[in-house]
Amino acid sequence: MSHLYKIGVSLFTSLLSFVLLFFKSNNAIDPIVYSSIVFILVLAIVYGETKLFPQINPERVFCIAIGGTLGLLFAFLLTFPIHSPDARGIIVLLHIVLAFLGMKVGLSFSEKPGLAAFYSNNDPEISVMPNKESSTKNKEKILDTSVVIDGRILDIADTHFIDGPLILPNFVLREIQLISDSSDPIKRARGRRGLDMLNKLQRKGSIEVKITYTDYTDTREVDAKLIKLSMDTGAKLVTNDFNLNKVAELQGVEVLNLNNLANALKPVVLPGEELAIQVIKEGKDENQGIGYMEDGTMVVIENGGHLVGKEVRVGVTSIIQTAAGKMIFTKVVKS
Asked: Which of 123, 173, 169 is nearest to 149 (CA)?
């Protein structure tokens, strides 16, 4: 149905151009040639409108074009009996006015929801253009330095839980390069890991990565630049930085914190459950042992300081949520 509609639009436009040219020409060859060219051009535009111009609303362009064409046709029918050279200026003005009115009518008709539903339901390849609130910019995610160095964004991108292109500001890339050139071996390793992660992310192609060269010379703080860029573009900010998260939220910026995501995905344990934990080290309090679950959650073992290096079975007594994550307090289960 959609293909018939597109071919029909092209035929209608070419036949109309043929009729207009036939009455103005002394032979029939030129109208046939020109109307054939019009048919090919219109057909190419109708089929390529969503590929070449994805930012343009196709049904709106179609309605405006049809409205303008009908306006010109009506003007032609009105002025066809007039042959006086003195009335040429009035004829041209009438064509312009009626074409403009036809385009206005077509524009108002395109805003009716019924047309958009018809257009989208008849062609599964064409979707109704979203409004500004759901535009592609709102799907963009701006990466900060901590997320790039962390590296977990690579695994998250592979799972397709984050959609839309990832935006890497050039000032963030410069900061990562400075970290990778640091004299501190730990910082240098973290910076190089961030650069390696970016290279892997681009090579994998699981999600689009764009570099933006937008900068703000009025400040040298990378965090302030990230917040300004997010506010200007409407994109979400992806970070692991707790302080940046809070400041950005205070200024109305949407934030995706990977630490919050990781905490939300940690397995739920309840008081009374038993766990098998390897005691890694002694805790701060006397005779207290520390262990970790597979997801990195800290487990505090009461009276477990002397069990360092051993795997013990413990029972959960309480769970505390902190800014850094969950802490699970346990007691050794006597067998």
From this structure: 173
Residue-wise burial string across 253-285, b where 16 or more C-beta atoms lie within 10 A, e elsewhere: bebbbbbeebbeeeeebeeeeebebebeebbee
DSSP state of 333: P
* Terminal C-alpha separation, the chain: 74
Q: Which helix (H) or strand (E) holds 255?
A: strand 255-257
Task: Give, as one character, the DSSP assignment of residue 96.
Answer: H
Return d(Cα 50, Cα 56) in angstroms, integer.
8
pTM above 0.85, yes or no: no
Per-residue pLDDT of the chain (335 residues; tens, 9 = 90+): 455 555 666 666 666 665 555 555 555 555 566 666 666 666 666 565 544 444 455 566 667 677 777 877 777 777 767 766 666 667 667 767 776 787 778 777 765 544 444 444 444 443 444 444 444 444 789 999 988 888 888 888 888 787 778 889 999 999 999 999 989 888 899 889 889 988 888 887 778 888 888 888 888 899 999 999 999 888 899 998 889 999 999 988 999 988 888 777 777 788 888 888 889 988 888 888 999 887 778 899 988 888 888 889 999 999 887 766 778 899 988 75
Which residue blocks in the chain are alpha helix, DSSP H? Answer: 2-22, 29-52, 58-79, 88-110, 113-122, 145-150, 152-159, 170-180, 185-204, 222-233, 242-250, 258-264
Q: Say if residues 9 and 46 touch (Cβ distance below 8 Å).
A: yes
What is the phi/psi pair of residue 54, to 5°?
A: -65, -20
Residues 247 and 227 sit within 8 Å (Cβ to Cβ): yes
Cβ atoms of residues 285 and 238 within 8 Å: no
Answer for the pair 47, 67: CB distance below 8 angstroms, yes or no.
Answer: no
- Give the residue among 279, 284, 275, 265 at the shortest CA–CA distance from 326: 265
